[in-house]
Amino acid sequence: MDCGNSVRWGAVRKGVMLSAEGLGVLLDAERWLFRELDLAVPAGSCLALVGPNGAGKSTLLRCLYGTQDATEGTLRVDGQKPDERSAPFRRSVSVLMDDSALFDEYTPRQHFEMLGVEEPEHGLPEVPARGLSAGQRRRLLLLGAFTREHRVLLLDEPERAVDAAGREWLAGLINDTKGRGSTVVLASHFSPLVDAVADYVVELVP
Ligand SMILES: Nc1ncnc2c1ncn2[C@@H]1O[C@H](COP(=O)(O)OP(=O)(O)OP(=O)(O)O)[C@@H](O)[C@H]1O
């Protein structure tokens, strides 16, 4: 992956699953959250976004999922312009964002049925989601994101509310999906997770 102004752009670069060219998001009339950001992330690898609160990690993830427009620059995710309303895009990209939510009335099994995926081993109680602890809810959200078919996985602070054992489990899930050829972009404040899974790190600075 390249980050900075050294990327040379061709029409198609073999193996690149996610790319940005000259990406910028204007924060207000005078300040750029980030600008001139170039990325080229190969299939089967993980890019970690790090930086302090307010640096723009979630904003960049929203741009990658198409829920926020960048002010300037171009993005391609699995060859597509990010657009969460596009069925082919949603087939390729799975997400856990900071506003991802469960259906409170649905049990874990019903969540997997709704996603149309086989229920994975999870050890969660078969109760409506509103009866799960914060960490159990987070695990269910994570399992939903990982279990959905994807070529690209976007994760915003997946470590939140997850205990020490769960963080190891999470690192294993990320490395497994990378091993199957998926590309992961992860925003995280937890450096042991970044160290365990990231092939590339971009630090955003406010
Ligand atoms: N909906 C919004 N409207 C206006 N400004 C926003 C909005 N969402 C975020 N911002 C601003 O954009 C900047 C970056 O926020 P962002 O959530 O991307 O940072 P972050 O790096 O993910 O932070 P954290 O580590 O706290 O999650 C902040 O200054 C924030 O106030």
From TrEMBL:
Q: Which SUPFAM superfamilies match?
A: P-loop containing nucleoside triphosphate hydrolases (SSF52540)
Family annotation (CDD domains): ABC_DR_subfamily_A
Pfam families documented for this protein: ABC_tran
Q: Which domain of life is it from?
A: Bacteria
Q: Which InterPro entries does this one have?
A: AAA+_ATPase, ABC_transporter-like_ATP-bd, ABC_transporter-like_CS, P-loop_NTPase
Which stretches make up the ABC transporter domain?
Answer: 18-205
Q: Which UniProt keywords apply?
A: ATP-binding, Nucleotide-binding, Transport
Q: Recorded GO terms, molecular function?
A: ATP binding; ATP hydrolysis activity
The family note in this entry says: Belongs to the ABC transporter superfamily.
Q: What is this protein called?
A: ABC transporter family protein
| Originating organism | Actinokineospora auranticolor
Question: What lineage is on file?
Answer: Bacteria, Bacillati, Actinomycetota, Actinomycetes, Pseudonocardiales
